[in-house]
Write a structure and sequence with these properties.
Elements: E1 10-14, H1 20-26, H2 41-53, E2 58-65, E3 70-81, E4 84-93, H3 102-117, E5 122-125, H4 132-140, E6 144-152, E7 158-167
Parallel strand pairs: 4-5
Antiparallel strand pairs: 1-2, 2-3, 3-4, 5-7, 6-7
């Protein structure tokens, strides 16, 4: 980390078996307040299996700081609305690493990776309208706000979110 407390770069490592602890650390009421609350141990293990096996179009990554610390996760996956399929992105930064520019750097990096697939022309993020930090990140990362909408996440839990889009 630079002297001013800002990370200058991140590396994205593909998710691996040893990274389950990151899901556990991020599965707190504080970290999941805008996502419907913590997941059950069974759901966490299922999520981890899908990440390790890369069992979906897209990829999950561990965010590694310029100091070599494993600080969170970021990924992209397909999301279909009506007849349009786009890349969706999401991230989680461990509390001790928040506020240092890691999420912005990681979203920039994952957008570059998603763009190289040539599959979809845009990357979307759907933070809750009350999630000030994630909405600020989308603005800072160059996303365009398309508007508010209802979004189901997790299954059975509806939330009001902002639809942010980044042209790839």
């Amino acid at each position: 980390m630079a002297a001013d407390g800002i990370f200058r770069m991140v590396t994205l490592d593909p998710w691996r078996e040893q990274d389950f602890w990151l899901l556990e650390r991020c599965n707190t009421p504080e970290m999941t307040a805008h996502l419907g609350g913590p997941e059950s141990p069974e759901k966490l293990h299922d999520r981890h299996r899908r990440y390790v096996e890369n069992a979906f179009p897209g990829q999950m990554y561990v965010i590694v700081t310029d100091d070599g610390e494993r600080a969170g996760s970021v990924g992209y996956w397909e999301h279909t609305e009506a007849t349009e399929t786009v890349w969706e992105t999401g991230w989680a930064i461990l509390p001790e690493f928040q506020g240092h520019g890691l999420a912005t750097a990681a979203v920039h990096a994952v957008a570059k990776i998603a763009a190289t697939t040539g599959t979809h022309s845009s990357l979307h993020a759907y933070p809750g309208v009350t999630n000030a930090a994630s909405n600020a990140l989308c603005r800072k990362a160059g996303f365009t706000l398309l508007g508010e909408r209802d979004f189901e996440y997790p299954k059975g839990h509806w939330m009001r979110c902002n639809d942010w889009s980044l042209d790839l």
